[in-house]
Structures are given as structure tokens and as C-alpha cells.
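re: ur question from the group chat, yeah i did fold both. here u go
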Amino acid sequence: LWDLKARLLEVPLVAAIDTVRDATPLYGSGGFCSLTVPELCAQLSGWVEHGLGQVKMKVGRHPEDDRRRVEAARRAIGDDVELFVDANGAYTRAQALAWAETFGGFGVRWLEEPVSSDDVAGMVMVRQRAPAGMDVAAGEYGYTPSYFERMLEAQAVHCLQADVTRCGGITGFLKVAALCDAHGVDLSAHCAPQVSAHACTAVWHLRHLEYFHDH
């Protein structure tokens, strides 16, 4: 419907939305566990060369390799770039707490889905006990307002995520943004940058938009 509205008005989608910002901050995302260490470092440093000051990599698939890969990534991007890690819910609560401490030693600023986002109590535990300066995030698998309300009311995250392709399109995404405003929590847009970039211009408490390596 938003696309139809923009077409009928003969304007870009962003012009059909009540915007509050002129630009959307991005971070580079990729760093799959399937990549070799040289491939990982080349990808992340490539984002930096393109001017992105924040980059994200995956962890948790092969925990025995996580420390080595994160250490290599930090060396590749330097100390002035923020390093994010995404576990996709791979860790247990105990593992997540231990890894948060390890990642903190490498200056990791963002720990995404350290445990399953369905484990709200576990998310709360990690958020409360994460090292200073490390934000805990989750929310990309949310489809309904009740999911996001539950996360926010439990204070499970420092920053909530939402995916415009899953949470009800642009209207649903803006509803999540309103919930974030009410709770004073930042919102980060998960993937789909070609659509999300338009919606993000209407978000007051926007942290950033994930610019994925292939979509």
C-alpha cells in the first residue's frame, strides 16, 4: 500500500512518509562463520575502506574458533572502528556471559542475540551482566507487536531490532518505532536496506540500519 501511495503521488517512497531525519546511518554486515579468516578480514576491512565506521561478523557456529576470528577481525579493522558480533542465538546463557567478557576484551560494542530471542529471561540476564560499553540487541525475528512489547517491557535489550520484511511492512515497522519511543530505547533496522532506508527516516530513536553484504 505504501508503494501504491508513492506511485499514485509520483514521488519516492520516502516523500510519502513523515520524515524526521535526512539520512540513515549504516553499518556493514556479513562476516559469516563459513568464511576463512583472510576472507573475513578482507570483507570487514572492505566495509571500512568504503567509509563505514561499524562492522558486524557472525559468531557461535564454531565457538572454538570465535576468539581467533574476533581477534583477527579487530586487527584487520583497527581500533577506531566499532566491531559488532551476532551469535544468532547460538549460545547458552552461561556461554553467552563468558563470551561477552571475552568479546569485551577486543572492544566489541554490540552483542546480537547472544541467546535465543525467545529466551527473554536469558536476554535480560546477558544485558544486565554484559561488560560496560557493550550493547545487547535482538528483535529481528519479531512478527507481531506483542513480541516487541514483551522484549521492551522486560528490558531485554539495549537496542531493539526490527525487520521491515517480517514485522508487518512499513506500517508495522513504524509501530515498532513508536513502541521504542515510548520505552526510550533505540531501534536498529535489520537488513532489507532498499526498503528500510525509507522507513528509517521516520524513526526518532534510530540507531542504524544493517547494510548486508548481499541483500
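okk and heres the other one u asked abt
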Amino acid sequence: MQSLYYGMRNKLFLVFTTVLLVFSFTGGLSAADSPQKIIVQTPPTAGALPLIWMKENGIMADEIEIEIIISPDHQRAISLISQNEVDMILTGVNVGARAFNKGINIRLVNTNIWGIDYLLTSGFRAESWSDLKGKTLSLPLMGGPLDFLARYFLLENGVDPDSVEFVYMPSNNG
């Protein structure tokens, strides 16, 4: 029951944050002639669901028109926002931080920690980090949070990361 409460609370938080973000783009409610258009690029992940829900249910349709571009290409999103071709992007904190550090004028509005990072094995049972020696570890993004965490935990547990083969395969799940 408690997980249902937290799930609903997270959904409400996402919707509230999205509405707040939209107000920041539009300057609040006004008697505008036509809705202001907001273009958002997002990967096909759960983080896009509040925006899709708002669009499909006509939330604030009198005030804003949301155009959603779905693409897994985070670098293209950074390029589009730096050229003012989109108003908002959904991307990883690390991707946004790197863009900000390169001088791109972006702001962090919200971040979610879903707590869904797991280490799964196939064909063998890992009891410790040393059991990964000589194995292949598949991660979604080189230099991303999971890459950093895997290497950190390997080192902290006395395993040389070079003894593990890292393969990077972008994920549609975020």
C-alpha cells in the first residue's frame, strides 16, 4: 500500500512540476489571443509521460500548445536547445551538466531518481563484485552515471575495472 502511495505521489509531483514549468514559459495565465507553443524533445522514456498526458487530456490547452518530439538522441536535443529550436528537453542530468559546462544556456528544472538500477546476470550467479572478472558488463552510456557507479563499486571491492569488459548499448528506458 505504501508503494502505491509513493507512486501516486511521484506522479502528482511530476504533473505539478510540469505545470509549473509550463507557467514559467508562458508567464502564467493571461488572456492571450492564441495558445503559446512549447516544443519539447524527449527520449521515449517514462519521464515524458506527464507531458504526453497533459497534451492528450488538453490540460491548459487554452494557454499552451505542447509539441512533443520523441527521439533517443540526447546530443541532438542539446544541439536543438542551444539553437533555440526547442524550448525544453528531457535528458540525463549528466548530459545536461556537460552541456551547461560547455556554455550552453540551459537550466535544470527537475530531476528524478527512480531507484531502478540493478545488476543482473545471465548464465551465472554473482555473489560478489569479484565474480564479474572476465565477464561482460552491458551499460547504457559510456561515462554515464551507471558507468561511473559500476567502476566505483568494482574499485571499492578490489576489482580492477580493466578485468571486466564494458559494452555500451543505449537504452530506451532512460
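fwiw on the second one: The CA atoms of residues 62 and 154 lie 53 Å apart. The chain has two domains: 2-101, 117-174. idk if thats what u expected
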